[in-house]
């Protein structure tokens, strides 16, 4: 048994059940809300769609690497399966495990990724210098803004980012930590590699295969040189997580990140109001049904 789930969990070694966007197999960990791509892992065999990476069952109960906060592990996703919490570092909504500050009336909460966020990193895009973790507001003047060199999006003052102490180089924490070096797309038999600059001898315009919009090659993107296919780095989470069909990149390229820490498909029971289990699903703009209780549009 694991304290995060009501049913016994089985240790699974079957590789054909792993997350694989090429075969449209969706398997997300309920702890870190990331794809499960290696065995063994733990899963519920009673139809709950509940799974955990093996290492997510061994997360430390406390963290003390966040100055001013003593963080305790919160691993009861059933209580947050339909509400979630907002991470104090990345600002993303999360319904997986998290670390919450144990001080009274402190609302500092972080997802498990941001719980272990490093103070310094080395990055291939800026190989000559270390990048240090800072809060954007501590280096931002009232008359200037910081832009992430990876995606070009303005870094909000309340966010943590990574900064080079010698160069005018900044990465928001999503681009610095969450983008893998290669990804796979079911429409391309080759892996797409993360590119930090325009591809040498590329003879045509760049277009994203996910959102079908023009791509600016000075901003990080994924590219297959054999097939000349490209994908916005901000569109990659649609492929990496579970291709949930949410893409708001026409208006905001950070849109695909909004649900990167949310797992849909949770079974939720509202014992006082409905006799059957209900699934947490991602709605669409065309879904205009009213809420059963408040009658407001969903």
Automatic annotation (TrEMBL):
SUPFAM superfamilies: Cysteine-rich domain. Keywords: Repeat. Residues 3-56, 65-114, 125-176, 186-236 form the DC1 domain. Pfam families: C1_2. This is Chromatin regulator PHD family.
């Amino acid at each position: 048994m694991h304290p995060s789930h009501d049913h016994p969990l089985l240790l699974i070694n079957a590789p054909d059940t792993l997350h694989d966007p090429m075969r449209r197999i969706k398997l997300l960990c309920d702890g870190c809300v990331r794809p499960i791509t290696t065995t063994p892992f733990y899963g519920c065999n009673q139809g709950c769609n509940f799974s955990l990476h093996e290492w997510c069952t061994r997360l430390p109960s406390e963290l003390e690497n966040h100055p001013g906060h003593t963080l305790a592990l919160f691993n009861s996703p059933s209580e947050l399966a339909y509400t979630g919490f907002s991470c104090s570092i990345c600002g993303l909504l999360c319904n997986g495990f998290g670390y919450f500050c144990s001080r009274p009336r402190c609302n500092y909460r972080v997802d498990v990724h941001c719980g272990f966020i490093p103070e310094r990193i080395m990055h291939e895009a800026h190989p000559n210098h270390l990048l240090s973790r800072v809060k954007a507001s501590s280096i931002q003047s009232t008359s200037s803004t910081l832009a992430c060199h990876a995606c070009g999006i303005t870094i909000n003052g309340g966010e943590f980012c990574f900064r080079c102490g010698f160069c005018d180089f900044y990465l928001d924490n999503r681009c610095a930590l969450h983008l893998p070096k290669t990804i796979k797309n079911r429409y391309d038999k080759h892996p797409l590699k993360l590119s930090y600059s325009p591809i040498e001898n590329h003879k045509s315009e760049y277009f994203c295969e996910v959102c079908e919009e023009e791509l600016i090659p000075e901003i990080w993107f994924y590219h297959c040189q054999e097939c000349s296919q490209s994908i916005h780095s901000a569109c990659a989470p649609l492929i990496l997580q579970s291709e949930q069909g949410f893409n708001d990149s026409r208006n905001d390229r950070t849109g695909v990140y909004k649900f990167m820490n949310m797992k849909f498909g949770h079974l939720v029971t509202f014992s006082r109001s409905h006799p059957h289990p209900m699934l947490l699903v991602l709605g669409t703009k065309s879904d205009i049904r009213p809420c059963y209780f408040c009658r407001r549009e969903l």
